[in-house]
Each structure stands twice: as C-alpha cells, then as structure tokens.
Amino acid sequence: MRDTRERLLDILEAIGKIEQRVSRDLDVFADDEMQQVWVIHHLQIIGEAAYGLSQQFRASHPHIPWEQIIGMRHVLVHGYFEIDLDIVWAVVEKDLPPLKANLQAILSSTK
User: Residue 81 — very low, low, confident or very high, per pLDDT cuts 50/70/90?
Assistant: First the structure.
C-alpha cells in the first residue's frame, strides 16, 4: 500500500506530466484528441491518488478540495460520454496550479 507521501508525489507527477504535454491554447486542446486523453488519464491518476489518502489526512488539509478532485475522477472514469472538455480545461488552467503549490508546501513541511 502506498503511503501519504507517495500518493502526494503521484499527484505532483501527474500534474507535471499534464504541464509538459498540454498546449496553453484551448482551441488546440479542443482539436487534439491525444492531448485530451493524456489530460483525462492524468486527472484520473490525481483523483485515484487523492482517494487513497486517509480521511484524517484530507480533513487536516481542508483548503484542498479533495471531494471535488475525487468526484471528478469518478466522472472521468464512469461518465466518460458526459465529459465536458471546457471543465477539464478549466481544471488544468485554474485548479492544478494551486493544487501543485499546496502539495509542494505540504511535502516541504513534512520532510
């Protein structure tokens, strides 16, 4: 079983992979199915890693929207035909940068 630190690193790695491959242009993203699949896959990893964190850990960091992260993973996995790419794009642009910063801060404070 993966420990908390490993799961947080899994999330950061997935964010990094999204950052490496994704265009910063919504129109390019909307027209590039490979980018869409790449992002959706790594968002699923983020959600799965978040789900694997203990309730106690998630409760101790309420400034991170854990339930939304986990909920998005469920939509991406089980509601594949209902995925709204505008929402996916908004997550990449607006939600991942603060998540990354928060997780980096948590990891640096627990070394």
Answer: confident
